[in-house]
From TrEMBL:
InterPro entries: P-loop_NTPase, Therm_gnt_kin. The keyword Kinase applies. Signal peptide: none annotated. This is Gluconokinase. It comes from Eulacestoma nigropectus. Pathway: Carbohydrate acid metabolism; D-gluconate degradation.
Length: 158
């Protein structure tokens, strides 16, 4: 697509990385400032009329609301749309798969601060997207080319 790609893990503060490296799951207090920073990146891209892709474990509905609307979403847990700062239009892609497949992929990953042992805490935290959220669900059991094609088709269909 030629869009700028951001990996949300690159934007975690050092304290979050240390906590995860020690096997301690992040909580909302850890994640909200990080999500607000990610919202700011997406807002900047939107203001510049550029599309972007953000790889991010936005596990809870509230987290996705923060990505859409920034800090203002924290109070209401819903995206707000004040005229001077309208909510971002985001298509969330829920990459869905069984824990054993994801665990095997995490075991092969090298040099990352999040140990595979934290996967269960992520599954425990997960609130899969649901209506009226703007999302698609893609199975991780498909091949990588199939996954990419499905996501690309959804984006191009609007």
């Amino acid at each position: 697509l030629g869009w700028k790609f951001y990996d949300a893990d690159d934007y975690h503060p050092l304290e979050n990385k240390k906590k995860m490296a020690e096997g301690i799951p992040l909580n909302d207090e850890d994640r909200i400032p990080w999500l607000c920073a990610l919202h700011d990146i997406l807002r900047r891209e939107d203001t510049s009329r550029r599309d972007a892709i953000l790889a991010c474990s936005a596990l809870k509905k509230m987290y996705r609301c923060v990505l859409i609307s920034g800090a203002s979403a924290i109070e209401s847990n819903q995206p707000e749309q004040p005229e001077e700062n309208p909510a971002l239009k985001i298509l969330f892609v829920h990459l869905d798969g069984p824990m054993d497949i994801i665990a095997a992929r995490l075991e092969r990953r090298r040099g990352h601060f999040m140990p595979p042992e934290l996967l269960k805490s992520q599954f425990d935290t997960l609130e899969p997207p649901s209506a009226p959220e703007n999302f698609i669900t893609v199975s991780l059991e498909k091949s990588l080319p199939e996954i990419v094609l499905e996501i690309e088709s959804a984006i191009l269909q609007g």
